[in-house]
Request: fold
Amino acid sequence: MINVSALRTFARVAEYGNIRDAGARLFRTPSAVSMTLSQLERDLGAPLFQNDRKNRLTALGEEILGIAQELLREHDRAVDRIEALATGRQGRLQLASVPSVAAELLPGLLAQFLDSRPGVMIELVDTDSRTVHSLVADGTVELGVAGPTAADSGLSFAPLFRDPFRVVCPKDHPLAQRGGPLGWRDLDGERIIANDAAQAIDAEAYRALIAASALKARNVISLLALVRAGAGVTLLPRLATVSLRPDLVALPLADPAAQREVGVILRQDRSVSPVCTAFLDDLLATCRAGA
Reply:
């Protein structure tokens, strides 16, 4: 049976016009190259070269050379593609993330990742933590970046960072004039605009405040528009307040427990693709660098 290695040896000898130089290019001894050519000619039942110097092809050799070169090009392209897929240089990655991470952490990371891997295609969905969990669980996306999962969800959670909550209010709001971090009592009497991200706050005082809330918004843009219009104040993770407009401020809270945990969500019953593995390496490195 004719194999790719034998055809590559033949093509190299035809290219260099002698066994010695072809052997050096192939990192093989002249005797090994000569044996391969002899076996190939026995398999074909006809000579490929007109003399022992191997500097002139027979008519059959000329025809086979063209076919061999075409086959080798296709073979090498296929091998390159296989290796690219296996090392994460090609492939498709679908991921879902909470909006603040999608807006502030991922853009630069994704740009660098795609620059280094032009064969990769990425689809990003930004949504709340519960929906991120659902998208990973049903296989719509391979990777999620969100809050912790339930113990019986079939999902794994690997922490990336903790993000303290801030009180977001207009710049001229009375709360903005107070000095130092705000306590929960400072929010008594304020209209709190509820949102999904703030559900991560595990504080009885906050739950008491939010119980009386008459307003809730899921979209951060709408939420901030409501705050800007004077409809109330809200609580958002620090990452979600990085790019606030100048007319709003993000005030720290005195309660150290008022924070969310963000991590990587994966399905426990699925192996991770090479492109996902490569992206996770970059994501972890970025989080460590920004810690």
About this structure: The longest strand covers residues 155-170.
